[in-house]
Automatic annotation (TrEMBL):
It comes from Hohaiivirga grylli. Residues 1-18 form the signal peptide. This is L,D-transpeptidase. The keyword Transferase applies. Its EC number is 2.3.2.-. The active site is at H173, C189. GO terms for molecular function: acyltransferase activity. Residues 80-213 form the L,D-TPase catalytic domain. Keywords: Acyltransferase, Cell shape, Cell wall biogenesis/degradation, Glycosyltransferase, Hydrolase, Peptidoglycan synthesis, Signal, Transferase. Gene3D superfamilies: L,D-transpeptidase catalytic domain-like. Pathway: Cell wall biogenesis; peptidoglycan biosynthesis.
Length: 224
């Protein structure tokens, strides 16, 4: 299924999704496997935004640990730091009271994950997307440029990670594949539900420190 067709189906699904019963999440990591009914039941409405409204995902279809929530946090990072735990599939925004806002994320598949320290170099609203040279080499048929919108793989918002003044080419961004949250399927970037990346975008400033942790083993997140 093309990205454009996916977006069209998602929009068609919005007025129908409120009538869908809550059912357990099914394994669906490839949008080509998604039927119109599969897509429809993920969406329950929209969040007003400019220039596009954000399709709102039914978080009842996500595992509980992937739903945005405030948790106790025992790390040493200062408030305002973004901590990405690749192994647990979580992103933490550290607060100043021993807690963090925890978001479920999708991460890079094996061989694409990155770790290290960075900062939010800039922020984008409904950003444009272009594949890296590595992506093009692996998939030559990828479009070379996609304008911001519902069919864009970066979703509604993006945080661009920089090392000093150098763009690392890694991003924290939205996704139009909500079933991929909690899985390792991306080309290395950190993907979030559009409604979650909107929340994160509103909370952090350019310059915020980012720490990406990865051991290569699936472990319990460092929250209590």
């Amino acid at each position: 299924m093309s990205i454009s067709r996916f977006a069209a189906l998602a929009l068609l699904a919005l007025p129908l999704a409120a009538c869908q019963p809550n059912v357990p999440q099914e394994s669906m990591t490839d949008p080509q496997d998604a039927t119109e009914a599969d897509i429809a039941r993920w969406y329950i409405g929209t969040i007003p935004d400019d220039p596009f409204d954000i399709p709102q995902v039914d978080t009842n279809l996500l595992p509980e640990e992937m739903v945005r929530q405030t948790v106790k946090y025992n790390g040493s990072e200062q408030a305002g730091t973004i901590v990405v735990d690749i192994d647990s599939r979580h992103l933490y925004l550290v607060q100043n009271n021993g807690t963090a806002v925890r978001y479920g994320i999708g991460v890079g598949k094996q061989g694409f994950s990155w770790k290290g320290a960075a900062r939010v170099g800039r922020k984008g609203v409904w950003p444009n997307w272009s594949p890296t040279s590595t992506m093009v080499r692996i998939k030559p048929d990828l479009p070379r440029h996609v304008k911001g919108g519902l069919d864009n793989p970066l979703g509604a918002r993006a945080l661009y990670l920089y090392n000093g003044n150098v763009d690392t080419l890694f991003r924290i961004h939205g996704t139009n594949e909500p079933w991929s949250i909690g899985q390792a399927v991306s080309s290395g970037c950190i993907r979030m539900l559009n409604q979650d990346v909107l929340d994160l975008y509103q909370r952090v400033e350019v310059g915020a420190p980012v720490i990406v942790k990865r051991t290569g083993k699936r472990v319990v997140a460092n929250a209590e």
